Amino acid sequence: MKLWGGRFRKGENKLMESFNSSLAIDKRLVYEDITGSLSHIKMLIASEILTELEGNKIIEGLNSILSDIENNDLLIKGDYEDIHSFIETNLIERIGETGKKLHTARSRNDQIAVDIRLYAKKKSTEVIEAVELLQNNLKKKADENAAIMPGYTHLQRAQVVTFKHHLMAYFQMVDRDKKRLENAVALMDESPLGCGALAGTTHNINRDFTAKALGFKKPVNNFLDGVSDRDYLLELMSCFSILMMHLSRLSEELILWSTQEFNFIEIDDAYSTGSSIMPQKRNPDSAELIRGKTGRVYGDLFSLLTTMKGLPLAYNKDMQEDKEPFFDSIDTTLSCLEVMASIIDTLEVNKEVMGKSVKNGFLNATDLADYLVKKGVYFRDAHSIVGSIVIFCEDNEKSIEELSLEELKSFSSVIKEDIYEYLDYQKSMNKGIKKTLLK
Ligand code: ARG
């Protein structure tokens, strides 16, 4: 069952065998592994390294293995070292001696490198699609809710914004995530197949052939780099980490807004859970889990960064440890995107509560300062005048818009009746660049 063993005088220790085996993890690359092998064999035929007869026999064998796996007639398990050994051993059992030619002019080092690049490219597309779904849902919910709400800095009420503009901020964040992912995919779009173990091969193989057949832009430039590069996984995991940070910030706001203290939104029952002891509870577990899982994805990135640190060229077995964190980060990111898209889709927005909240906290103070500036007051003076008005309001338990024109005029003679257009939250929304908040 081993792909090696010729130079060994005694067998592998059982504990070592299971310690070394990665089949339980890398079995997920079965499709990419067979796809890579099929292209490799087609190239070997085209380069006259295998005869057509031999090559086609191998191709048939690989295809039958793949269809048996897809139909559950062949289960990927047993004492195999990895997915590569599993496929090759099964191929030889199935088609006989010719199967032993599969690995001609190839190493598992370039094999795994091409497998994981193919897989990473495919999964990145899935993440990009999941981001697009979230974007659609954000846009839809935003368009339905152009209502005003308090905007915050330091989590203190600051100025009026719209729920739409607030939600669309997240649209922009994940839009950058999408572009980051597209850039990462473009950068990794080179085939390492044909690098061999580290030094190429004395066979006259055609790396352009396999690169093209597997959908890569070109083969990598350097053999040692090709087999030992995992930058693309790190880069994708960095993209996932930033993306998760965005989802986590959104989760935090959803959690906060769904408290009785805020009561701005309601997360749908379908994405909430209850308490085993407190019958009245309705908890925003979906958003909390996304916030929590963000830590997992950061950890995955750091796990591989730490594994790669200090590795000499070229392949080292340490690199087998790339898969668990990468698979985990991609699974986690995908599921979080999916759940977040559904939370947004089913979100109830309490426009009335948000509209009322705007009235407390002097959110029109900056608009009032703008008004004074338009009437010729220096901004720094306007700032100070409005500060005094706020103190007056606090002392008299009033909001600025509740003050009479006389009261307002006592702070500055430039104030006229048109002031109320600036103090009205809805009307001020139509002034200047603020209109953007509604669009
Ligand atoms: N299972 C290995 C990995 O994932 C495949 C490459 C093994 N190469 C070797 N020379 N042992 O990295």
Question: Care to describe what's here?
Answer:
This protein is mainly alpha-helical and 439 residues long. The chain folds into three domains: 14-101, Fumarase/aspartase (N-terminal domain) (Fumarase C, Chain B, domain 1), CATH 1.10.275; 108-197 and 217-355, Fumarase/aspartase (Central domain) (Fumarase C, Chain A, domain 2, Up-down Bundle); 360-429, Ribonucleotide Reductase Protein R1, domain 1, CATH 1.10.40. It is 59% helix and 5% strand. It has helices spanning 14-20, 23-26, 30-46, 52-70, 83-95, 108-144, 163-187, 207-213, 223-228, 231-257, 285-308, 323-345, 351-357, 365-374, 379-396, 405-409, 419-423, 425-428; strands at 148-153, 156-162, 190-191, 218-219, 265-266, 348-349. The chain has a two-stranded antiparallel sheet. Strand 3, helix 8 and strand 4 form a beta-alpha-beta unit. Helix 10 packs antiparallel against helix 11. The protein binds arginine.
**CA-CA gap between termini:** 65 Å
Mean pLDDT: 97
CATH fold category name of the largest domain: Fumarase C, Chain A, domain 2
Silhouette: elongated
EC number: 4.3.2.1
Protein name: Argininosuccinate lyase
Pathway: Amino-acid biosynthesis; L-arginine biosynthesis; L-arginine from L-ornithine and carbamoyl phosphate: step 3/3
Family: Belongs to the lyase 1 family. Argininosuccinate lyase subfamily.
